[in-house]
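Why does residue order matter? Because the sequence determines the fold. Keep that principle in mind as you read this record.
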Amino acid sequence: MNLPLYIAYKLLRSQKILSKNTKPAIKIGIVAISLSVIIMMLSIFILSGFKETIKNEVIGFNSHLKIEKYNLSNDENMFLYKDSVLSQIKKLKGINKIFPYVKKTSILKYNNLTHPVLVNGFDKVYNSEFFSSHLVEGSLPDLGSEKENNQILISKIMSDKLKISVGNDLISYFFDDKTRLRKFKVCGIYETTMIEFDEYYCIIDIRILQRLNNWNQNQVEGLKIYLGDNNSTLELTEKINEEISFDLLASNLYDDFPQIFSWLELQNINVRIIIILMVIIGLVNIVTIMFVILATKKTFYQITKSIGFSNQVLRKVFQYHTTFILIYGLLIGNTVALLASIIQKKFKLIKLDPTVYFMEYVPIKINFTDVAVLNLSAIVLSLFVLYLPTIYIGKVSKVKQ
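Structure:
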């Protein structure tokens, strides 16, 4: 039996931590520890949710990876052969979905109103789930029909600027060697919190853009690749570049949007600073609690020394005793933080300005691995930090006969 642990447990049972007789310093210390844990956990949950939300939105619009012709001449009419590239990468594992695309700048016009856009042409295999989840009116374009259709999916921002509704026809101007016009019918309107993408991103049948470029159905601008695991993006980028021919290049979302992900990395620094400050505050409070216990239990360790307990055993007793109180504070902090996170995740009570934060509410991602690491780190660190205050026990004399 671990004697110091047993004695510490008995001391804890004999002392109701939040009773009227408990020293105010201990109560304040427990509250401070709980608040520190709450702030640290919420910071981690919010940052994780924030990063995941932004990343999923960027992936939804752009995919994890894309393969394009290696363009040294800045030629806008570069194409690759879809079937040839698919045969080169089909043996790679971890790929969830591959589909071709062609994109072209255009100006949409409805009545006397105009708006510049980037028209994206896809086939029936495109990322329809993402746009379906953000659809606010109408339906997605039918890109799997035998014949090409003139349906177009636009954003709510475009709809508001052009003052156009589902079912209306608009004119799209394409500018190459000469200006060409195409009529489209608005089939649906989507809305996301990524305003930068909503401003210009619309979807039509890929066959229309292939025909405008005088390409056949096997000629495309590139291939978008969606993965089964977000964490394998960098690894698969390297593998694909090893498999495809020298005149092709695979790039990922980190290459295409470095400013967004650099900004997200800066948020990590803010959270680390918060965690460091909260750890310092928590440790100061746990040491304070131990000094209060040592001061109030002086008679106890005078008696235990008299009956033969060594300084080492008593040090461990009070280390364990204070650690039990720390765990009490951790339990309160964990309970409050998890409850607050679950409520926010379900009811989305705290709102945000999407023009600033790219989302309408504070996102939460609860990761129990982070919770376990945070709590275990706090307990282990406290055991080391609490050793120094227990040196005071060695200076206490035995009870005089």
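The two ends are 31 Å apart (CA to CA).
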